[in-house]
What we know:
The chain has helices at 13-17, 27-41, 83-88, 91-113, 118-129, and strands spanning 6-11, 53-58, 67-70, 73-78, 134-137, 143-144, 151-159, 163-171, 177-187, 197-201, 204-208, 214-219. The protein is of the alpha+beta class.
Amino acid sequence: MPRLNQLRVYPSSDAADHATTYPDLHFRATTHHVAEMFMSMLAPGYTLDGAGLVTISCGARGPSPEYSQVLGCTEVFAERFDFAVYQALDHGPRQEMILALIEHTLSDIAARVGADPAPIRECAGMVRKHGFVLEQEQRKLSRCLPGRRGWIRVYRRLGAGFCEMWLAKSFDPTGAVVHEALMREPAPLDLRQHFFRSQLRDEVFLVEDRFAKTVFSLPLPAVRA
């Protein structure tokens, strides 16, 4: 049975169509980092209801069923989500509200299908323990520089206010950071398929997408005399 590997928390189509989320509340930009942190910390191989993607749709569901699964994708509605309360909150309480929603909704699905809810509770606890901020090295993109000159390591950072940020950091042979470069403007997007592979070529660190198109480049640190 497929494991759970994607989680989204979106406004429902009905809520978005009727501007329930309010013009100045960019809902996805406030939920993205919480959902991505949860998935980053969820026990590897965890199977919920056989869906690879679960979407929690906040707001009115209209004629849609409360819970449905189509082609390996589950959608479940949180109709009682209070956008007015959510908009009035600061970053911290908002994060907790979304995490509590995720924990409660996934636990309900687990009860529905007979899955183990313990990994869900444990994962939510880990997200809280990390303070809703996570920086992870993307090891497949990091490269050791020739001539023992150090390393370039790539990091994916998740947190409130910037959603998802990607950084390339240059390290000298002692392990000290000598340069840090933003790889793309922060956004509520999972860019793991965009930043897909890397290589060193002609004294330049290159990152390519899935289609072998260069999407980021960084000159290598100069050789010290």
